[in-house]
């Protein structure tokens, strides 16, 4: 026999019940797809549950907090969407014999999302140095001049970025 916990006894359930409807409406206004809005609303509360300690139940301004979390998730959503569109545009330009299979496309897209998340975790200059080196093929000296830092600093940035890449592979 299972015992149901009443929303009054569970502060998170109470918070969810009070704030989920308006958050969902707010997200529907930002997105054209109601399914994506529902997913992001759910993800917002998952983030809240993942918050350490009692923060989830002691929020002074729950709407402000939930809106901030939802905005960050929206930014991630739009960035992923942009990345997917760029990938699909690149695929469309490939000749049919070299077009990857549907399974390979999904694997590549998943890897692109992981790389994007990894890059997002880097500092701005570290990310810029890494992208200039790996995508633009710039030499460390040129990157140093562009970022107004020493070449040694660029090497440090690259070590940090490659460490993140290794962690991504692990």
Automatic annotation (TrEMBL):
PANTHER family cross-referenced by the UniProt entry: RNA POLYMERASE ECF-TYPE SIGMA FACTO, RNA POLYMERASE SIGMA FACTOR FECI-RELATED
Domain RNA polymerase sigma factor 70 region 4 type residue range list: 113-165
Domain RNA polymerase sigma-70 region intervals: 15-82
SUPFAM superfamilies membership: Sigma2 domain of RNA polymerase sigma factors (SSF88946), Sigma3 and sigma4 domains of RNA polymerase sigma factors (SSF88659)
Family: Belongs to the sigma-70 factor family. ECF subfamily.
Keyword Membrane: no
InterPro entries referenced in this protein's UniProt entry, alphabetically: RNA_pol_sigma-70-like, RNA_pol_sigma-70_dom, RNA_pol_sigma70_r2, RNA_pol_sigma70_r4_t2, RNA_pol_sigma_r2, RNA_pol_sigma_r3/r4-like, WH-like_DNA-bd_sf
Gene3D superfamilies (UniProt xref): 1.10.1740.10, Winged helix-like DNA-binding domain superfamily/Winged helix DNA-binding domain
GO molecular function, one term: DNA binding
Record's protein name: Sigma-70 family RNA polymerase sigma factor
GO biological process, one term: DNA-templated transcription initiation
Any one Pfam family match given in the protein's UniProt record, by short name: Sigma70_r4_2
Entry keywords, A to Z: Sigma factor, Transcription, Transcription regulation
């Amino acid at each position: 026999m299972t015992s149901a916990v009443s929303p009054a006894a569970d502060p998170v359930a109470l918070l969810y019940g009070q704030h989920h409807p308006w958050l969902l409406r707010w997200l529907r206004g930002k997105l054209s797809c109601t399914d994506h809005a529902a997913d992001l609303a759910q993800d917002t509360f998952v983030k809240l549950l993942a918050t350490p300690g009692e923060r989830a139940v002691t929020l002074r301004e729950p709407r402000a907090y939930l809106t901030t979390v939802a905005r960050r998730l929206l930014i991630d959503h739009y960035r992923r969407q942009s990345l997917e569109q760029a990938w699909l545009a690149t695929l469309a330009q490939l000749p049919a014999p070299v077009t990857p299979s549907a399974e390979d496309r999904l694997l590549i897209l998943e890897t692109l999302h992981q790389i994007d998340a990894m890059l997002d975790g880097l500092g701005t200059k570290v990310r810029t140095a890494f992208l200039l080196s790996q995508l633009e093929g710039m030499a460390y000296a040129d990157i140093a001049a562009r970022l107004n830092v020493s070449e040694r600093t660029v090497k440090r940035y690259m070590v940090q970025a490659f460490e993140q890449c290794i962690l991504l592979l692990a």
